[in-house]
Amino acid sequence: MKILVTGTAGFIGFHLAKRLAAEGHDVVGLDSINSYYDPDLKFGRLQAAGFSQAQITYGQLLDSEKYSHSRFVQLSLEDQDALNKLFADERFDWVCHLAAQAGVRYSLEAPHSYIDSNIKGFLNLLECCRSYPVKHFVFASSSSVYGLNKKIPFATTDSVDHPASIYAATKKSNELMAHTYSHLFGIPTTGLRFFTVYGPWGRPDMAYFLFTKAILENQPIKVFNHGKMSRDFTYVDDVVEGVIRVLAKAPNASVELDDAILRADQSSAPYRIYNIGNNQPVTLMDFIHQIEVELGKEAQKIWLPIQPGDVEATYADVSGLENDFNYKPKTTLAVGIANFVAWYKAFYC
To answer: Distance between CA 17 and CA 121 in Å, rounded?
Structure first.
C-alpha cells in the first residue's frame, strides 16, 4: 500500500512509519517539525529513520537512506495548497493521521495553535481524502475526550460531551468532522482513542520523560493531585501494532443499524471508534516507583494540587479492539519503563 503517515517526526508517527517501511509499504511521512518541544529530538527521530536534517527542505520529498520506498516531507497541515498537491501527486491508498498540537496543559496557554493544527489542519486532510479518495482514513483521537466522565473503564459507547481542556475539545471535534465526511462522502474512517502512550523516543513534555530527566539530574519532580492519579499507560509498540491491524481493515457502511438506537462508536456510515489502552491502569505513585527502580534512585517529590485540564484517572475498555481485531495491548509497565530508560540514557547521557 501507499500510505501517508502524518506526524512522523513525532513520537507515535515515527514508530509507525518505521514499522510500515520495514514491512515493505510505500510510506510518505509528513511533519511540520514545529517547536512545541525540542526540535533536536524530532530531527533525531528522522535521522533514525534515514532522513538527514541537512537535506530536509520544506515541501520537498526526501528519500530515506535506511528504508527503500520510504520518503519524508516537511509540510504544515495548514498549508492547504501544498497538501492538496501532495495528494494529487501521490494518490494514497491509506492515510494515518497522527500529527496534532498535543498537550493538555499547553492548550490552556496557546489555544489558537490547537485550532490551527487540530481543526484547520484536520479539515484540510479530510478535504484531500474527499478529492483524492482513499481506501481508509485512520486518525488519532485521545482518551482526553472522556473528560469529566467518572464511570470507568471508559467505553467507546460512553458520552464524551464534557471535555476538560481545549485539546480534548479539538479531539472530539475531529471525531465529529470525520464522521460527517464519512457519512457524506463514503470515506472509510476509523478514530483511535489513545491512552497515555509511552516508550523510547517519547515526548519530553510527558510525565515519565520529565521524571526520568529530573531524577537523573538530582532535581525534584512535581507530583500533581498529591499522587492520587492513575493512568492507563500504553507502550508505544502495542499502539503501533493496534494501528496497523486497524489500518488493514477498513469499516463498511452498515444498513443493519437502527437509526433510533445508534451507538456512539458506530454508524450507518463506514465509520468506527476504538480505544487503544493497556486496560490496566497504574497509580501515579506506582509509576514513579517503577522509574525509581529502573534508575536505582529515589525521586525528590514536590506535592501539588491537580492542574486545570487534568483528570484523576483514565482506564480503557478495549473490548471493541479485541472483538474486531483479536488484539489487546500486553506490554508490562516494567518492560516498557526499562526500554524507555535504556533509550533515554543512550540518547541523552
So the answer is: 20
Return the C-alpha cell found at 314.
483514565
**What average pLDDT does the chain have?**
94
Q: Cα separation of 197 and 240, whole Å?
A: 10
Local confidence band at 266 (pLDDT 50, 70, 90 cut-offs): confident
Q: CA-CA distance, 345 to 77, in Å (whole number)?
A: 33
Query: Are the CB atoms for 244 and 19 separated by under 8 Å?
Result: yes
Structure letter (DSSP) for residue 154: B
CA 349/CA 346 separation, integer angstroms:
6
Question: Which amino acid, 273?
Answer: I
From residue 7, give the alpha-carbon distance in Å to each of 45, 85, 183, 278, 287: 11, 18, 26, 23, 27
Whether the Cβ atoms of residue 150 and residue 313 lie closer than 8 Å to each other: no
Give the confidence band of 249 by pLDDT, cuts at 50, 70, 90: very high
Burial 115-138 (b: 16+ CB within 10 A, else e): bebbbebbbbbbbbbbebebebbb
If you search the block for the grid coordinates 499502539, which residue do you land on? 239
Give the pLDDT of residue 311.
82
Q: What is the DSSP letter of 299?
A: P
Catalytic residues: 167
Residue 263 has pLDDT above 80, yes or no: no
Q: In this predicted structure, which of 40-54, 143-157, 334-348 has the lowest mean pLDDT?
A: 143-157
Instruction: Name the pLDDT band for 261 (thresholds 50, 70, 90).
Output: low
Partners of 303 in beta bridges? 223
DSSP secondary structure, 154-212, as one string:
B-TTS-----SSHHHHHHHHHHHHHHHHHHHH---EEEEEE--EE-TT--TTSHHHHHH
Tell me the pLDDT band of 313, cut-offs 50, 70 and 90. Answer: confident
